[in-house]
Design a protein that fits this description.
It is a single chain. By secondary structure, this protein is of the alpha+beta class. It has three domains: 377 residues, RHS repeat-associated core (Shell), CATH 2.180.10; 171 residues, no CATH class; 129 residues, Alpha-D-Glucose-1,6-Bisphosphate, Chain A, domain 4 (2-Layer Sandwich). 22% of the residues lie in helices and 34% in strands. The protein has twelve helices and 39 strands. It has a 26-stranded antiparallel β-sheet, with no helix packed on it. Strands 33, 34, 35, 36, 37, 38 and 39 form a seven-stranded antiparallel β-sheet that branches. Strands 27-28-29-30 form a four-stranded antiparallel β-sheet, with no helix packed on it. The longest helix has 21 residues.
Length: 706
């Protein structure tokens, strides 16, 4: 085997696995916050080769990371907008204490204006033309260890805002705004793209030894690399959604790539397997061979620039080009010869901490830092990653993400079961993935089935009549021929787009619709059972038709959740509202930050009649006592990184309902409290009408603290 799972925690997170060379890795998570605390890899209790430890603040920022094997310890500090402001590195080299510090400064637009290991950044903000693109950096350091050999660097851009000149590097772009070539002196790197705009070939020319290296990409599973007389075949092996091993086979001839009959094979190079091991960000930090020997260690600065992984080396902070793989920071491909990282959607320069081209997505319109289209993950590279090169995976509590959380919670509350949270959370969060992450593949996987099956529900019509029963358009009743055919077509399209069989999808959708509509109760509190039935029926029928169980199960679950169950989910009592408080404080004022306002929300501004602080990681019981006539109105409240999340209990007059209150920063630099309410109780309309009455006084308690 190449990989085997040993254990997972109650949340499904991987806590233990073993790879083919026998190296075992254990990961420890906080059950309350989900933070990854430690990563340890060893062959036995005495032969430990990896021991990483992480610490976090109340805003979930990484404040310290330690490598107990190398002795490297790094500390990090942040400003009120969660931007990294300092990274400090300490340790010992040959028993001599060593320390190194980098400071970061930003303007109000999220532009880096100074990076102490690089220099001072200059922008076009005054002219209003591309205010987020630096036109120069003065005093740039060419030796990151000693901060010496200062020089200036200039940048130019095309009409699309893509960098065309990076001092001594020239960059050309395709018509669809992806990098075509990088040239530095007599060296060059050129990419060729296919019809889907994914790169399929890279050609690197190196003048120092007159070498041309041609790499052909075949998806993510195979690369063919031709260099001089060698042709390398790299097979990439994945497990749990991550690249875990590379199997390398090398062909060697006296004149590779020619048809000369005199060619004779050179000394064969044995096949080899290399195992990759990752840190908390998904960056490769260690590579081992088939026998478990360490063949390479890697390390990165806070913003992703490579440095030596062996802290015992004479200068561990000097950049390094690895020999075995170009994968590195957060798992992406490094263009090491040019100093860039290709993140698929865009190319990133880790030295200056910025992308070379603009992000077409606005990730979160409620966060002013999202409007900087060149910054890397809103300048918090220890907390967030950018899997696609577009709209980083920041998990900021945007409206889409909060809606997903609330919808999952409401559906789970209706169906009242632990298993319901698993099934329904998967379906709902899958459906909002594109809005939350900007991933087109996720949108195809989630939005398509949701849209198709919801659309069929629209064709069926359906409304609650005076008799309290559901009435459908003629011919579109559950189990009718029209409904079966429509569900069959939808299931076929969805499975085909997921890489499965159209025929199997048609069976799963149509036959599943028939059996699903014939044997289930329509009561809301049995939604979980119905969803599970649909998933099992859809999966089984898909297998019978030659497809995958998982695809069929997903089709069945989506068909039910976005169709049959709609009459229960979208009842007359559904209500939602959003409101903003008056300004709490300005971020320029001492003591005013997201963290401090969030703390005050948790202390006095979480809900009406609050008498004690809401703690993080624990759902606490409170009686909010909305009116003297309503009696007890109990809720469960949990602290989040930016405020609180409240859930009403059955004795609450607005049950079932949910409210999230968050501290957010707006364009003017002021911090406000955003309240989102969502529920399906009978008093829903009244709740919407009284939102200001309920929350204005609670907001004022927080404002009074400033």
């Amino acid at each position: 085997y190449f990989y085997r799972v040993k254990s997972r925690d109650a949340a499904g997170r991987l806590t233990g696995h073993i790879v083919g060379n026998g190296l075992s890795t254990e990961q420890e998570y906080s059950p309350a916050s989900g933070h990854l605390y430690t990563i340890k890899s060893n062959f036995n209790t005495t032969n430990q080769i990896r021991n990483l430890e992480y610490e976090y603040d109340l805003m979930d920022n990484v404040t310290q990371r330690q490598n107990h094997i190398s002795g490297l310890s790094e500390g990090f500090t942040y400003d009120a907008l969660d931007r990294l402001t300092q990274s400090s590195t300490t340790g010992k080299i040959d028993d001599v204490d060593y320390s190194y510090k980098v400071d970061y400064q930003y303007d109000i637009n999220g532009n880096i204006i100074n990076k102490s290991d690089v220099g001072d950044y200059s922008y076009n903000a005054a002219s209003g033309v591309r205010p987020h693109t630096p036109n120069s950096i003065t005093g740039i350091k060419t030796n990151t260890s000693t901060n010496t050999n200062n020089q200036d660097r200039t940048y130019t851009y095309d009409a699309n805002g893509s960098m065309t000149k990076n001092n001594d590097k020239t960059i050309q772009w395709t018509s669809f705004n992806k990098p075509k070539s990088f040239t530095k002196g007599k060296d060059s790197t050129t990419f060729t793209y296919g019809p889907d705009r994914s790169r399929y070939q890279k050609v690197q020319t190196r003048s120092s030894d007159n070498t041309t290296i041609t790499t052909q990409y075949f998806g993510k599973i195979y690369e063919k690399i031709k260099q001089n007389t060698n042709t390398e075949h790299k097979h990439f092996i994945y497990a749990d959604g991550q690249l875990i091993a590379i199997h390398i086979k090398t062909d060697t001839t006296s004149a590779a790539g020619t048809s000369a009959t005199s060619n004779t094979p050179a000394t064969p190079i044995p096949d080899k397997t290399r195992y990759l091991h990752y840190d908390n960000l998904g960056s490769i930090d260690t590579i081992t061979d088939g026998q478990g020997n360490i063949v390479e260690r890697m390390a990165y600065t806070a913003f992703g620039q490579r440095r030596k992984g062996d802290w015992r080396a004479s200068d561990p902070l000097l950049p390094i080009i690895p020999a075995l793989t170009n994968r590195g920071f957060t798992g992406h491909e490094h263009i090491d010869e040019m100093g860039f990282i290709h993140m698929n959607g865009r190319v990133y320069d880790p030295q200056i901490g910025r992308f070379l081209s603009a992000d077409p997505h606005i990730q979160d319109p409620y966060n002013t830092q999202s409007y900087n289209r060149y910054s890397y993950v809103m300048n918090n590279p220890l907390k967030y990653t950018d899997p696609s090169g577009y709209a980083g995976n920041t998990n900021y509590p945007s409206l889409a993400v909060i809606a997903a959380e609330m919808t999952k919670a409401i559906l789970a509350d209706i169906t009242a079961g632990l298993f319901s949270q698993v099934v329904i959370a998967y379906a709902v969060s899958y459906a909002v993935t594109y809005i939350a992450t900007g991933s087109g593949k996720a949108a195809q996987g989630a939005g398509l089935p949701a849209g198709l099956f919801m659309g069929i529900g629209g064709l069926r019509g359906g409304k609650v009549g005076a008799d309290g029963k559901m009435h459908y358009n003629p011919g579109w009743e559950p189990g009718s021929m029209k409904t079966l055919v429509a569900h069959g077509l939808a299931g076929g399209i969805v499975q085909d787009r997921m890489g499965g069989s159209f025929g199997a999808g048609f069976l799963a959708g149509s036959v599943g619709s028939y059996f699903g509509s014939s044997g289930k109760s329509s009561k809301a509190n049995e939604m979980i059972g119905n969803t599970a039935i649909e998933a099992v029926i859809g999966g089984t029928i898909s297998v019978v038709g030659g497809g995958k169980f998982a695809n069929g199960a997903q089709t069945g679950a989506f068909r039910y959740l976005f169709n049959d169950s709609a009459e229960h989910i979208f009842s007359p009592g559904v209500h939602e509202y959003e409101m903003m408080s008056k300004a709490v404080c300005h971020t320029s004022s001492p003591g005013c930050s997201i963290a401090s306002v969030a703390l005050q929300i948790q202390t006095v501004g979480g809900f009406p009649n609050q008498d004690s602080r809401v703690l993080k990681g624990t759902a606490q019981l409170f009686d909010v006592r909305i009116t003297p006539l309503s009696g007890s109105d109990h809720i469960y409240s949990t602290a989040t990184s930016t405020g609180v999340f409240n859930r009403t209990l059955p004795d609450h007059m607005f049950h079932p309902g949910y409210v999230r209150r968050d501290a957010i920063v707006m364009d003017d630099g002021f911090i406000y409290i955003r309240t989102l309410g969502y529920g399906i109780g009978y008093w829903g309309s009244l709740n919407v009408g009284l939102k200001n009455w309920a929350w204005d006084s609670v907001d004022q308690k927080v404002i009074d603290k400033y």
